[in-house]
Design brief:
heterodimer; A: two-stranded antiparallel sheet; 11 helices; flat; B: alpha/beta; Rossmann fold; six-stranded mixed β-sheet; four-stranded antiparallel β-sheet; 36% helix; 25% strand; globular
Chain lengths: 318, 269
Amino acid sequence: MNPANRQPDRAKSQHGDSAFKWLTLAMALVIFVLIGLIGFELLRGAQVSMHKFGWRFLVSSDWDPVNDVYGALPAIFGTVVSSLIALIIAVPISVATAVYLTELAPQWLRQPLIMFIELLAAVPSVILGLWGIFVMVPFLRDPVFPFLQKYLGFLPLFKGPTYIGSSMLAGGIIVAIMIIPIITSVSREILRSVPGLQREAAYALGATRWEVTRIAVLSYAKKGLFGAVILGLGRALGETMAVTMVIGNSSQIVASLFAPANTLASVIASEFNEATGPIYPSALFELGLVLLGVTVLVNILAQLLLKTFAGPSVKPQH
Amino acid sequence: MPATPNPATAATGLNFPAGTALTARGLSVHFGRNKVLKEVSIDIAAKAVTAIIGPSGCGKSTFLRALNRMHELNPDARMEGDIRLFGDDIYARGVEPVIVRRRVGMVFQKSNPFPTMSIAENVTVGLRLNGLRDKKLLAERIEQSLQMAALWDEVKDRLNAPAISLSGGQQQRLCIARALAVQPEVLLMDEPASALDPLATQKIEDLIVHLKKDYTIVIVTHNMQQAARSSDYTAFFYLGELIEFGPTAKIFTNPSQKRTEDYVTGRFG
């Protein structure tokens, strides 16, 4: 190009470009710095507790602020169990909804349904918690828990007093409601990416709709759906506000799902206000560290699963 | 059900040695407001290869899909007319498309094996849907179907390998084996070789000629040589209408319609 033809402000606009590049890079780096700082602060805050309790912190079930002895096991137990309850409830509902939306629903019903699911995701956690306290928990106390006890009471899970209401099961249900939207919408995306030719192959063999869904759609999408579930688990582990409001906040490990419990997140949320002295706050920091570690790992796993679901694709032909 | 008297057979002057497999009368298909197939009446010979040719958008794929009700997967589709499979009205009230598709199998333009299944599982998937569980019988059918699809020798040592480990041509023959395994009465093929290289295409064509001993085959093709080489009868469609139908030799050497002649000699299309 002849330099004489250049626009006069060309050089200046290149300056602008490089400034733009550095500015956006700096903003992007802020995210890394923030994550690093959060991790670092948690680690620093947890120092006292880590020194005092060592690995026993993770396996001890004493949580005794009066004597300043802390163990995370009940909270870890509560987090795992409430998340499992949530998955057991939410996964069938979410995957079935996604299947209905992609395979069966008439066109006019799809958009409204999708909108409602997204609305559910938009309900603030604290409002869900309020609903939980004032509507769900009383309803669980009577008639749901007595009903469960009557018919499933032979299982240790459904033994024990039913009149408390605020319980592990209540926490699990609330978390289920909160993770249904994410699992549903990720599953829907996964199912939509199954090629139409796969469905046609099954239809041409004389498969019914259910059979088409089973052999051509679900089996093709298995891995991606698993990723969607793990992503839901990642959310479930860290859910805080609504869970804190309905789980009963009691540090104990018991089999009964009707008994109050707590989770890593709910302990931090409900106790940071009264945590005094050098050790108590540090123990809360260490709970946070455990929670962060677990959720980061679970989310990485979910992302890996979803990424490898570029599909077990059929080879291109030439 | 008794076969209906057939005025059009007389009109086309065709006498099929093995009888008639399919008869379509006044077959029209609409997609929404678009009428893509217009009052087509045609007989399909049993145990013979019938080629459907015509330029893109002439309705040949729609015609094929109407023969096993696959067009109904499109919610906008609507059909009029009458199709009989060995005398049975496949659109009669109470006839499930699922049953029709078990009698009329289909192979698609792009091979579409089930990627999470092995080679053997792909072959038996239709049988398993029908409730067949007998291991020995399934093993027999696997060999038989893969033999018929001329794939047995290439895969017999790795039947449990994933279907997607096969080459494109092998995958298409696997899809043919999958369709044959349920022993359909008619096999529909929608441009089965259009995505394959010449060698793989050759294999598919040989296979088609071989299969007509036992099966009624209807094949849609863009490839004039393919139609001429492998079919017994040829139907030429244009803009949704059946322009001409007759023995392949006649259609390609001495067509009675000017448009057929123009198309088969490559003057348009």
